[in-house]
Amino acid sequence: MRVLVAGATGAVGRLLVPLLLEAGHQVTGVSRTLAGTERVRRQGASAVQADALDPDGLRQAVTAAAPDAVINQLTDLTDADAGATDRLRREGTRNLVDAAHDADVHRIVVQSLAWVYAPGDKPADETVPLDLGAAEPRGAMVEGVRVLEETAAEIDTAVLLRYGVLYGPGTWYEPGGAVSAALGGDREARFLGNIEADLSVSSFVHVADAARAAVAALTWPSGPVNIVDDEPARGRAWLPVLAAALGRPAPGPVSGQQSWARGASNELARSRGWEPEYASWRTGFAAQDA
After folding, report:
1. Ordered structural domains, the chain, with CATH
2. Which residue has the higher pLDDT, 288 or 122?
3. Cα separations (Å) of 254 from 66, 250, 259?
4. Residues 4-22, buried b or exposed e (16+ Cβ, 10 A)?
5. Of the N and C termini of the chain, which has fewer Cβ atoms inside 10 Å?
6. Which segment of 26-35, 114-123, 254-263 scores lowest on mean pLDDT?
7. Per-residue pLDDT averaged across 228-234, rounded?
């Protein structure tokens, strides 16, 4: 299959490209920088320089690649700028879908989120509605995800990968990353925020497992699929383990619980044959410096 990867040099994309090649696909990676395209070519794939926010340039790139499928892994999280990523979810996805239509592409796989579900008392499956109408700033994120998913669904087959909190190389949670810098520092309360409160529940997924899910999704039917590990956990459980793995002081207790921070179920993904190599953050956090 000819596959175009938008966001080929992001945390997931950089692991996804070689996995696609190993699976026998012809891969074109899109990056907005020359350095990014060079990195993709070193991995053995074709590469094209294009900006997802430039509709004409992106259309030319997709048309030239003539893919059978498009994978959207677009993010802009280097500076913890939620607004920049939200713009990519809205405008970048719009441009990518329009370009895919022009190139007669009938399958798309997109990176979405598994913590946008409405509040509840157990991990959410894919039948739970999105938390539309949530208070800001969460409301803007959920709305951005809604737009992302509805835009992608204009393609005949659209697989919406709702990733848990990504950790591993290239993420905020890697050694030396933003979370490591925040732990024990002045930025701790602002950066970590209420999702890590003692009773709030999060679901994680290692970037390598996220990339493997994107490869598998090339044969999956349309619809959302949670891509998370097997162990949703409260902040009081996972934060000390992460801090120890990063060699940072464990944060003090943060009382309370966000009702929407409920974790997610991976039962559907597992039923389709996907199994996380890192079934729990307990082993995954410790393996990050391996």
Report:
1. 2-168+207-229+264-278 (3.40.50.720)
2. 122
3. 51, 12, 15
4. bbbbbbbbbbbbbbebbee
5. C
6. 254-263
7. 97
DSSP the chain: -EEEEETTTSTTHHHHHHHHHHTT-EEEEEESSHHHHHHHHHTTSEEEE--TT-HHHHHHHHHHH--SEEEE-----TT--HHHHHHIIIIIHHHHHHHHHHTT--EEEEEEESS-BPP-SS-B-TTSPB-TTPPTTHHHHHHHHHHHHHHHTTSSEEEEEEE-EEESTTSTTSTTSHHHHHTTSTTHHHHH-GGGSTT-EE-EEEHHHHHHHHHHGGGSPSEEEEE--S--EEHHHHHHHHHHHHT-PPPPP-----TT-B-B--HHHHHTT---SS-SHHHHHHTTT-
The structure tokens 């349309």 sit at: 222
pTM, whole model, 2 decimals?
Answer: 0.95
Closest CA to 72 of 54, 46, 90: 90
